[in-house]
Amino acid sequence: xxxxxxxxxxxxxxxxxxxxxxxxxxxPEPRHVYVPPSHIKALRLENDLVIGGRGVGKTFWGAALxxxxxxxxxGESVPDLPEIKVQSGFGEQPExxxxxxxxxxxxxxxxxxxxFHVWRAVVWRWASTIVGADYHSAAETWKQIxxxxxxxxxxxxxxxxxxxHTLLESGRHGLIIFDALDRTSSDWTTxxxxxxxxxxVALALKPFSRxxxxxxxxxxxxxxxxxxxxxxxxxxxxxxxxxxxxxHDLHGLLWQYLLNAEIQHGDLLRKLYQNTAYSSLAPPxxxxxxxxxxxxxxxxxxxxxxxxxxxxxxxxxxRRGVTYTWVVGxxxxxxxxxxxxxxxxxxxxxxxDSLDRYPDHLYPLHYESIxxxxxxxxxIRVSEMAEDYPWVKGLLDPLSGLNVPCEADxxxxxWHSRFGESPKLYEYGKLPPEHVGDGWEGVRRDLITLGIFExxxxxxxxxxxxxxxxxxxxxxxxxxxxxxxxxx
Length: 488
Description:
Structural class: alpha/beta
Number of helices: 20
CATH class of the largest domain: Alpha Beta
CATH architecture of the largest domain: 3-Layer(aba) Sandwich
CATH topology of the largest domain: Rossmann fold
Shape: flat
Distance between the termini: 44 Å
Strand order of the largest sheet: 2-3-4-1-5
């Protein structure tokens, strides 16, 4: 590939990959929908509970299920999807006509309404739209709705029966989606009650053949918590789905984006694919190019496709690492999991850096640019972590400049110097570490649970590059940490 065409490929990669991979109230584009085999279960109506970490697709699939065009596209894999009537039960985007927003929810709980009855009121609103009956006025507040539903359980039960019958007669299914539940509370005790009561309501829909709930939860909202301590919760747990991405899934997603780049960029990247794979692509369906099945699996073809973009090695030979595995590995958390958001962000940043710094390099992605791409993805991940857990950044900032792996005592010394002997003196804000009562050792355990810290066999504390780089810690021979803003 000569230097001019390589620059063109870099521009095409930049155009194909989104600068912001979070939806931010946007509906997913059908051409960017890629379904790993393990995610098909998450889309099936009978599976009410979907668990996943940050950036793995919870909000993406919740938004995708609300789009009729995407449901039709997914209908071959999940036959019931094209014929469902979908509504939000809670989400990032406030829709007060459908569910109380975070402030209203908080006020209802402060007024001693049980979350169980709040969720039943949300389901009441959903069921009433299915039957097309005027069960409430536009001026009615959520406090009034919750009060009425709480006081009249028989009418609620009859409404569900009627909604189920209405859908049965029309040959359709109803689906109500709950996402972004971390926005409902800032303390863990209340959060547990909110999640547990929602799962109770979801379970209550199980007897109805046409009424379905789908609850998307973060891992820390489900595992090691008391949210399933109610009768028959096993019926939900037995069908729960965990959203994960294997390395070959991430590479498949990358090529789904690249093949569907617009105009001349797509032409160039599809030609690159076909020249590398020695095979033609099937014609697009409804304007969407699909990645062949053989390119979705780990193997020589997928590795060769990435080598066409980045070369085979992270340097002159394999001693520096194989690009195909290096990128995914250096974007993994302490539990060896890599999110698609981090992977796509790193590849795009590497293309931007290569375009600027290495115009004459043989491959579109220079290995030094890939390292900077990891830095960029790490910075994004740190920012996301600060949104979810504001206390994490405050606790890790004093560790900047420390080399890992290291003894736990070195970390504790930094914390003692900045915050004092007890972690209880620190202002944690939203969803604080659960084991703060156990001292700094308890805080370390919480950081291990989040996948930020990991304990090595010799007892030392390590931090994966995904977080180490963004938080400014070092490692001999590792990707350099981000330069820290000393003014902040």
